[in-house]
Amino acid sequence: MRLPPPPTRLPHSMQGRTPEHQARGSRVHLTGLVVNMVLAAIKLMGGWAAVSPALVADGVHSLSDGATSLAGWLSFRWAGKPADEDHHYGHGKAEALAAAFIGLVLVVAGVFLVIDVANGADPHYERSMGILAMGIAGVSVLVNGWLHKLAATVGKDLESPSLRALARDCYSDALASVLVIIGVGCAMADLPRAEILAACVIGVLILFMGLKTLKGATDILMDRVPDPSLRAAIIARVNLVEGVEGVERVGIHPLGHQLRVDMEISVDGDLSVRKGHAIAHKVEESIIVGETRVVEVAVHVNPKDSSPPE
Question: Is this model's pTM higher than 0.85 or not?
Fold first, then answer.
């Protein structure tokens, strides 16, 4: 007996994110977009006025963050759309696709910043220009620290790859601004190469943040299981269901921030089709109730013969 019943799904109102969750996530993305574009404008104008390569590099970082925040916001809205005739498993991977784009932009920006700064001239400051550059960087540290905490908290609550990517961007931007303060301070103390070094470190930091974001997005797009222990937990849970004789296969398929499980179980081969089908549904329900990230389960039932064939 091998049954291919339709998968058990959460009710439509429980699939994906609620409208409140969507609105909350969208607000964070829009906040990130506005904050990053404003910071980018201030840093770039201040960096050019003060002739600070580190602050200009930090401004380019914020500009790339603004572009990626826009991509993240659009993908977040897209990922919230329900499944349709053309996308049977929903649009959840849109966020991972945007996160991959964010990572790629950061990698390219980091490489070009290192090359550009390394070939630049040593900076020299008038005291007022140095204080201006350090003041702008200080504001950036505070604002990005706040935005990082906001994006990280909401990203964790909503299991959102794009919000987690935004949080990492804000964290790297805050660290970059700290390096600007250190570098400009050293340049004002007649150690101009220190700022060049700080700007290069900012570029490398952006590069590594981009690689980390790109890897996380690629894992989702390539269906890597987010938690290796999840498979064992599902098997243990299924083995507790009455009537299950064994678990033969478990496949976990990411649907963006949520998961689908495909599996095969064995039951007594002498059971009726109706009873085997009922056991399969108990298995599906036990997984969906017990594993909060799983929203869809499909179970194939195979016979485990209890008597030799005639």
Answer: no
Question: Does some domain include residue 131?
Answer: yes
Residue 31 predicted with pLDDT over 50: yes
Distance CA 94, CA 162 (A): 9
User: Which phi and psi (to 5°) does residue 307 adopt?
Assistant: -140, 150
Q: Within a domain: residue 83? A: yes
Tokens, residue 310: 């005639």
What is the per-residue pLDDT across 72-130, written as a single tens digit (0 to 9) for each? 777 777 766 766 777 766 676 777 787 788 788 778 878 877 887 677 655 565 677 88
Does residue 277 share a domain with residue 260? yes
pLDDT of residue 138: 94
Tell me, what CATH number does 249's domain have?
3.30.70.1350
Burial class (CB in 10 A: 0-12, 13-18, 19+), 242: exposed
| Overall number of domains in the chain | 2
User: Which phi and psi (to 5°) does residue 84 adopt?
Assistant: -140, -170
Tell me how far apart the alpha carbons of residues 72 and 91 are, in angstroms, rounded to a whole number: 14
Taking residues 249-265, what's their average pLDDT? Answer: 84
Structural domain for 160, as ranges: 16-221
Residue 10 domain-assigned (yes or no): no
Q: What are the pLDDT digits (tens) for 192-201?
A: 777 777 778 8
- The amino acid sitting at 8 is T
37, 127: one domain: yes
Instruction: Note whether 216 and 256 are same-domain residues.
Output: no
Cβ contacts of 31-35, under 8 Å, gap ≥ 24: 31/147, 31/150, 32/65, 32/69, 32/72, 32/73, 32/147, 32/151, 32/166, 32/169, 32/170, 33/66, 33/69, 33/70, 33/73, 35/143, 35/144, 35/147
